Amino acid sequence: MLPAVCHPNNASAVLPTPVGPLPAAPFTDSLLRSPLLLHIPHASTGIPDDACGDFVVDRNTLDAELLRLTDRFTDALYGDGFPPAQIVAADVSRLVVDVERFADDAHEPCAAHGMGAVYVRTSSGAPLRAISATRRAQLMDQYYWPHHHRLDAMAARALEQFGRCVIIDAHSFPVAPLPTQVDVGDPPEIGIGTDAMHTSAELADVVHTFFTDRGFSVGVNRPFAGALVPNAYYGRDQRVQSVMIEVRRDLYMNERTGDRLPRFADVQRVLTEFRALLEAWSMPTTRPSVS
After folding, report:
1. CA 225, CA 3: separation in Å to the nearest integer?
2. Which of 35, 52, 74, 93 could be bridged to 162 by S-S, CB 3.0 to 4.6 A?
């Protein structure tokens, strides 16, 4: 389900054929405001006490990895004012479990860098954790699968209520390239990730036009490619649409300190406007113009 670099929904990856019934019982009984869901996989810096003992690095190194790899503040950037019932956010840091990876390392390109669903290497390639197969399964059961069950269930609710589901896969990225990155050229201010089946040409055009009209430099499927799609629907149901948005971090935060910049609020306003546009676009009977 990620980008060519690190998204499970990499169209070039060989995926197992989905099996089993689609989810029938969403985890919430409340009605959704719209078919739009917000997926926030990498904003958390949380490392539970019972996971701390897995790491073989010192605290300074761990803090440096958190600063380098966390999509800091993306929950506030993308989610301000949006119904919490329509947000699926990871409960823990990606250094514990990365929910935006294939579960099986055999299908996950980032696993070659020790950065599959359960990281064992730092972003510089040094040892991060020594994880047994048993411990990996425990972490996946505790954090990875519940997250994806929630996402599957919310997509099922959107389809039941509206007949369609649209997902914003919300990210940010550092100016200096990550080892898992495929495009290491001059980074755009906004990266748009698409999926061959689950990002329609119309959706891609709406997103691209929105950001270019506001003066941002935009890359399509760079520096990362792909868009996360719920497991239950990936490759199966085009009514589920998804687009990944990557905001270059120096637009809103100091990458050295992790602090917000004064223009944080400006970027937040743009993303709130974008989300409102996409929410209106997602409704079955409306197609607003982009301006």
Report:
1. 4
2. 35
